[in-house]
Automatic annotation (TrEMBL):
CDD domains, per the entry: NAT_SF
Pfam families: Acetyltransf_1
The protein, known as: N-acetyltransferase domain-containing protein
MF (Gene Ontology): acyltransferase activity, transferring groups other than amino-acyl groups
Length: 301
């Protein structure tokens, strides 16, 4: 088995892009096996674009090959403007090649690579089905539900000293007919308190709002539940909002943003994001109302 460190491609489809395609394809297979669908997965283009601006995030790959065949990858995400003590790691090995030490070899090299980049904390997310808390399960300090400690992903990470610090629950909603949605939207507008206005945009953040969007994003980075994670406040300004928009477009993501404006300032936000590679699904991201505003009743608007 050959373990190699590889640079991600600067261009979509360039040399090394196959690593993103492999990563996306094999995680889709994991989701299909667990949940019977891959709609929760991320496309190769989307993952590639997340590392497009190296002033924000740097990607590093560790690959495993046997007789020239790619049999596993580890992807490291290294924040550059904040949280520079962290490395986010994703490791995936096809089912046919598991149980032969490939994942362990990838992890060992990825951990060494992260340390060489000055990172002293690794965070890894894994997919799993929720179970009722009880013997043989583990629960995080924050988040609903528990997972089976003997599940492959959990067992792999616990063996290497990781702790479960948070459980994120993914929920789905089949949209009702359009008429019902329009009625609910009209009801929300009618309930908006005096002095507040709903502001909506499709695509990139309008220049008028980039500064406010940056402040809301910073608040989101400290307001969102993080359990026992060592995530710290993000450094976000107007230029970074523009860079995020560029990366979103490059990754094939479309967005619809709804905000609440009060006295000329945005004080709340939610966004719906759709991956054009998976058009059946929309993801809700970053729902936040600033703390001093929520008490007015606008939190539900």
């Amino acid at each position: 088995m050959l373990i190699s460190r590889e640079e991600p491609p600067a261009d979509e489809g360039g040399s090394g892009y196959a690593l993103y395609e492999f990563d996306a394809r094999e995680w889709d297979a994991v989701l299909e096996d667990l949940f019977g669908t891959s709609l929760l997965g991320q496309s190769a283009r989307r993952r590639w674009a997340e590392g497009l601006d190296p002033s924000i995030t740097v990607h590093r790959f560790v690959s495993a090959r046997e007789d020239g065949e790619l049999v596993g990858v580890a992807l490291l995400e290294l924040p550059q403007r904040d949280n520079t003590h962290l490395a986010f790691v994703s490791i995936v090995v096809p089912a046919a090649h598991r149980g032969h030490g490939i994942g362990a070899a990838l992890f060992d090299d990825a951990a060494a690579l992260a340390a060489s980049e000055g990172r002293d904390n690794l965070e890894i997310w894994t997919w799993d089905t929720l179970v009722e808390p009880g013997p043989g399960t583990i629960s995080a300090r924050q988040g609903d539900g528990a997972i089976d400690a003997a599940a492959p992903g959990a067992r792999f990470l616990l063996k290497r000293g990781f702790q479960l610090v948070q459980v994120d629950t993914m929920s789905g909603w089949d949209l009702p007919p359009q008429a019902g949605l329009e009625a609910a939207a009209a009801e929300a507008r009618a309930a908006t308190p005096e002095g507040y206005r709903l502001v909506q945009w499709h695509g990139d953040t309008p220049e008028r709002w980039v500064g406010d969007a940056a402040l809301l994003q910073v608040a989101m980075s400290t307001d969102a539940p993080i359990g026992g994670s060592d995530l710290r406040a993000e450094v976000i300004d107007a230029d970074r909002i523009r860079a995020i928009d560029r990366g979103r477009r490059a990754g094939g993501l479309d967005q619809l943003v709804t905000s609440v404006e009060h006295d000329g300032t945005l004080v709340g936000i939610t966004r719906l994001v759709r991956d054009t590679a998976r058009p059946q699904v929309g993801d809700q991201w970053d729902t936040l109302v600033l703390g001093h505003i929520g008490a007015t009743g606008s939190a539900g608007s």
